[in-house]
Structures are given as C-alpha cells and as structure tokens.
Amino acid sequence: MNGWHETEVRVRYAETDQMGIAHHANYLIWFEAGRSDLCRARGFSYKDMEEQENALMVVAESYVRYKSPAFYEDILTIKTAISEIRSRSIRFSYEINRGSDGALIAEGETLHLVTDKQQKVRTIPESYKRLLTEDDLAFPAEQVPR
Amino acid sequence: MNGWHETEVRVRYAETDQMGIAHHANYLIWFEAGRSDLCRARGFSYKDMEEQENALMVVAESYVRYKSPAFYEDILTIKTAISEIRSRSIRFSYEINRGSDGALIAEGETLHLVTDKQQKVRTIPESYKRLLTEDDLAFPAEQVPR
Amino acid sequence: MNGWHETEVRVRYAETDQMGIAHHANYLIWFEAGRSDLCRARGFSYKDMEEQENALMVVAESYVRYKSPAFYEDILTIKTAISEIRSRSIRFSYEINRGSDGALIAEGETLHLVTDKQQKVRTIPESYKRLLTEDDLAFPAEQVPR
Amino acid sequence: MNGWHETEVRVRYAETDQMGIAHHANYLIWFEAGRSDLCRARGFSYKDMEEQENALMVVAESYVRYKSPAFYEDILTIKTAISEIRSRSIRFSYEINRGSDGALIAEGETLHLVTDKQQKVRTIPESYKRLLTEDDLAFPAEQVPR
C-alpha cells in the first residue's frame, strides 16, 4: 500500500444543508477530489486516461462512515490512498480530518472498475498501473504539476 | 411566443442550505429541468440534438430574480417558454411558483447559443427549429412521451 | 421489515458528468428523496421531527453498490424500506431501477442516528417510532398528503 | 469601489456534465466561494453575521455571462468586488479567468438584501458595513485568518 496523499478543501456555503452541517453527499465529491489529486501527484490525469487510453475508472461501490459533522468554512484535509490494485479494479481509502481541531470527520472507501467507453470491463493500462503502484510518488509533493 | 410549459419539482433536503431555504444555485438546475421538459413536450430531446445533429445548446447567459424563498418539501411549478428564437440562439423565460400558496418564488431567463461539439457557433438544425416554433405543441400535454 | 415505498426521479442534465452518465454522488441524494417520501407516506416529515421534537436523523453510514449506469432523462424508481429500527438508530435499504428496461441501477443502505440539535444522540420520539414501525402505511399510496 | 479579491478553485469531476464542460449552475457556487473569501479577507464571516447579528445576506438577483467553457481540472481564479453598497443591499461583481491561458470564463453579478431570520429586510449592521467599505483590507492578503 502506498502512502497517503493529502488534499485540502474548504466547506462551501452551498454544501451545507438546513441541519447547518455539510450535506453527506458532498463527501463522495471530496473523496473524488482527493482521488484526482492523488492521480495527478503520480503523474497522470483522469482526463488523459479517458482520452488517450479509452479507459474509464467507473465507481462500483462507495462506503462512507460519518464520524463528526463538518461546518461551513471548515478547512478539511482529505487523505487518499490506494488500498488494493488488481488487473481490472482499484480500491481507494479515504480519511477526512478538520484542520482546526484535528477531528476525524469521516472515513470511507471506493471501488472502481476500469472499463472502455462502451462500459465493457477491461484491464488497467500498464503504464497507469505502474504509476499507481510504484513505491515513490512520480513527483515529490512540492513539484506536483498544476 | 409560445405557451408556457409546466414542470413540477419537489425541493430536496440536499437542495437546502444552512439558511434553511433552497440554495440559489438550484434555480438554474430547475430552469434546466423545465427546459428539458419543454423540448420533450415538443417531440425531441437534448440528447437527440447532441447525438444525431452535433448541435449543443450552450448556455451563454443566465439571469434569476429571487422573489421569495422556497423550503424543503415545497412543490414548485416551473413554467418555461421560448421568448426568442434566432438562427443561432434561443432565449427561454421561466417563472417558478409554489403550489401550496401560489407564491412567486423566482423569475428568470437563459440565453443559449447553438454550437457543434468543437464549440463553434452554428445554426439551429431546421427540424428542431420547426419543433420549437410551431404554434401547437407536438404532443398535447397528456400524451408527452416519457 | 416494512414494505417498499416507491419514488420516481428523472435524471437531470446537471446530474450527468463528462463520462456521460449520472454522477455517483447523486445516488445519495436520490436515496434521501426516497427516504423523505417514505416518511411522508407514513404521515410525518423530516421537517416536523426537526421543528417539533428537536430530533434530527443524522447520517452515520452510507453504502452504495453501483450496478449499471443511469443516463440523462432516464426515469428511475427508488424503492426504500426500513430494514432495522432500534431505540436510537434507523437503517434504510434502497434499490434503484430504470423504468424503461427494468435494469437494476444500484442498491444501498444508510444508517441514521437520532440526535438533538446539539448533536447529542437521543432516542427516537415514540410517536415517530410508531409511525415508522406499524405494519400498515399511515396513508394508502394514493392518499399520501402532498 | 473596493479592490478585487481573488479566490482559486479547481474544476471538480462532479462539476462537469455530459457536454464535457463545467455545468453552468456551478458558477453561482464559485461566485459564492469568492464572496465568502472576500468577507473573510475583510475580517468577518457569513457565519458571524448570521449568528451574532441576526443578519442574513439573501440573494435577490444573479446574473452570469458565460464567455468560454471551463474543463475538468482547470484552475480558475474568481475575482470578486463589492460594486455597490446601500443601507439594506450589497451588489457584488465577479470575473472568472482560467489560470493556464488567462481566458475569460465568465462575468457576473449578484445582488443581496440583508434580512433577519424571519426574512424581513433590515439595515446592514454598522460594524459589517464599515468592514465592507473601508478602503484597505482589514488584513493584508497574506495575513487573512484561516
């Protein structure tokens, strides 16, 4: 298992609901932001995989455990890691913490199947698999291309 | 100008914010639902235009006047009409009312340019223009295909 | 376990992503729409519980298994049931099917804790528990108050 | 008119639609992120105004001109300024540019009325008005509290 990658988001007003907390559907969007960032840190983009390799990472399962509510303007750190990689699937794990007090906000997992644009399951392109599994990040954190 | 087309939505919990009212960005999504419905009532779908004619209706302007807040579970009626149609653009007008008390919730407008998939402005396909401008709905309300 | 309650949604354009399918975070919003509807069918509203009883149903866990993609304009049926009810928690189960071909789109579960407005866990108000557990719906489907 | 305040967002996958571009409703959410940031830079938060002063900034009008599409992973700069401040209303102006090529993505405006929690229009609390109108930012950009 590779190291955690960290992404920061600030809770938007639009993400709150009338309970006064961040609505629970946003957690999947934040997980996705973490996943995108992890891929970018490893030297590629979802977009490249879609356009150049006809390979889509389709979400097959999602699981979230909500531990503590998040509020408007909270700065959250999403930690993302690849917890399992197989020939045709990838599992990511997540942990969200609040910056100000370190509170654990949520934990979760998503399982992804790799498919082509016709939604047929296929193997992960070899070059991407290598980027995702190698021990060291393609780029040290401070050199991640923006 | 053609008649109004009516679409009903119920305010979702996820659409509220911590002010306890429906967040203002959702109004554009409701307008879009009204617009989709109006097109469907006239015998075609956004999807068809995109897939069969390489014609996209890109939003060029949006304007919303928020008159009265909408709340969780409110049933809203979105009235949509085509207010202007030119060779390469279409303007839609909207009015949102609450079912229970008839309150005017919002009014608005969107202007759309017709482009191809490379984002180049093009003329509206003739067959769609006809469907959008003819006086009578392609289908009476109760026969709109689902 | 009580019977399934059915809710219909039509996939909105705003709910699609660049993969051309409904984005996976929307499923939690659709589940919530199903849950709201089930409560309403049993004679009460989230809103009442929040305002009159100082009881919030906070999401503690969510789980979704995505079986088949949903597309723009698809009409989906969300089936919702209460799968477990305890003194301070409620578990809901969901199944989403597409109307046109009956395809299974997704299955899932959410677990909810009942808290007060200070986020302290509390027991479910007795009157609501009764409405949620009684064998027969408070209102037959065709008489559900709107 | 005060200076522009700048906020950066990266386009999320969830924000794209099947046209392959950022959905137009997100622009209002980005404007709001810019507005929140401008307030924070001036030494206060929406949250404070709501909780301590019973003053809500309700959106009364929104206007967006979409100039060029934004894509997944684009880094966008939202420039926000207060263009008019009256006793009971505030007007904000916005401009969105893409970082990589400087392209103008959108321009817009929102008009806000200040109300109490019962939705009655009221005057802007004097202390907030001062923070919003004084020539110099309450905090230099690099000292904005997080």
List keywords for this structure.
homotetramer, 146 residues, alpha+beta, Thiol Ester Dehydrase, Chain A, five-stranded antiparallel beta sheet, 22% helix, 34% strand, elongated
Strands, helices and their partners?
Four copies of one chain form a homotetramer.
Chain A: E1 5-10, H1 26-41, H2 46-53, E2 56-66, E3 75-85, E4 89-98, E5 104-115, H3 126-133
Antiparallel strand pairs in A: 1-3, 2-5, 3-4, 4-5
Class from helix and strand fractions of chain A: alpha+beta
CATH 2nd-level architecture of chain A:
Roll
How many helices of chain A does DSSP assign? 3
Share in helix of chain A: 10-25%
The CATH class label of chain A is Alpha Beta
Envelope shape of chain A: elongated
Describe what you observe in this structure:
The structure is a homotetramer of 146-residue chains. Chain A has 146 residues and is α+β, with helices and mostly antiparallel strands. Chain A has a single domain, classed as Thiol Ester Dehydrase, Chain A, CATH 3.10.129.10. Chain A is built from three helices and five strands. A five-stranded antiparallel sheet of chain A has the order 1-3-4-5-2. The longest helix of chain A has 16 residues. Chain A starts with a strand and ends in a 13-residue tail after the last helix. The mean pLDDT of chain A is 90. Chains in contact: A-B, A-C, A-D, B-C, B-D, C-D. At the C-D interface, loops of C face loops of D. Strand 2 of chain B pairs antiparallel with strand 2 of chain D, so a sheet runs across the interface.
